[in-house]
Amino acid sequence: MNLSEYLIGDSLQSFRQYKGLSVKELAEGICSEEELISFEREKAYPSLETLNQLANKMNIDLTYFFNIASKSTINYSTAVMQIINKHKRNWNYKAIYEIVQKELDNPLFQPVMLKQFLVWHQGICVFYLENDFDKAIQILHGALDLTNEKRVNLSEREVEILASIAILYKDMNLYQESISMFKKALNDLEKLPHILESRGKVRILFGLSQALTEVGEFQESLVYCQKGIDICIHEEIQYLFANLHYQSGENHIKLGNKEKGIEFLQKAIYILQLQKNDKFIQIVESEMEKLLNRC
209, 238, 287: which is closest to 89 by C-alpha? Predict the structure, then answer.
């Protein structure tokens, strides 16, 4: 294995700092402090055995470490995960469930991080396809248990699973519980040294803003909407960009700022037109009409 193909140094240092370990603490019993510093600065590379020992000491699965550190990882498992993520963006839970059921017993997906990904999406599918809230929540908590039974110092993946649980609570109209979970997920996410996927944070901000609107906290909801919009602009991503504008418009209208609300709703429709999302345009136009009729 050619370790120069991976961001070994940056990844080692980021994980070490996130786990709150000094160079001396991580190196102890494995290598010298000078060697660890040289690994982090990529002046030298550790042997695979040394790297495995360092990962174990930080309680990090080596497969997960390489997935994070990879400059270009293209393999079967990542391809499957990419397909699942694509279906998730289109709310195609039936397609996701078929893939999950096929791969759960696949030996390639037995490493804990890969298995967790499948169990996570199994829980989501159970809720939306079987309408079984209790079973879905149990499965999602089981996914978290695979890597973090105590729910402390959540990783980016674990934060996303917690956010999925919060979304299910929101969809069951259990808004206060949902808000509490979204805020914990956001707090844990902001503690991480690096965020690999900005869409996860946008998803949390949007879900939180929705739940806050439902309990009448329109001003607070607007704050999180704007944070989500800012990320979309800064990171140049379209994910939930229109949804966040719609949510902002709904909040302004419910606060009595009709003109400002209409401005945001029209922006949402314009964004959807650029995205050629005719189906969602019809939904937004219908909801916009209902909102304005209530004014």
Answer: 238
Token code pair at residue 88 = 């998730």
Q: Which among 135, 113, 115, 131 is positioned nearest to 123, based on CA atoms?
A: 135
What are the tens digits of pLDDT across the range 96-122? 999 999 999 876 788 788 899 999 999
- Tell me the average pLDDT across 117-131: 98
Residues contacting 163, CB < 8 A, separation 6+ = 181, 182, 185, 200, 203, 204, 207
Predicted confidence band at 178 (pLDDT cuts at 50, 70, 90)? very high
**Crossing angle of helices 93-103 and 76-89, rounded to 10°:** 160
CA distances from 19 to 15, 26, 80, 112, 201 (A): 6, 10, 30, 19, 21
Token duo for residue 30? 């494995």
Distance, CA of 134 to CA of 126 (rounded, Å): 10
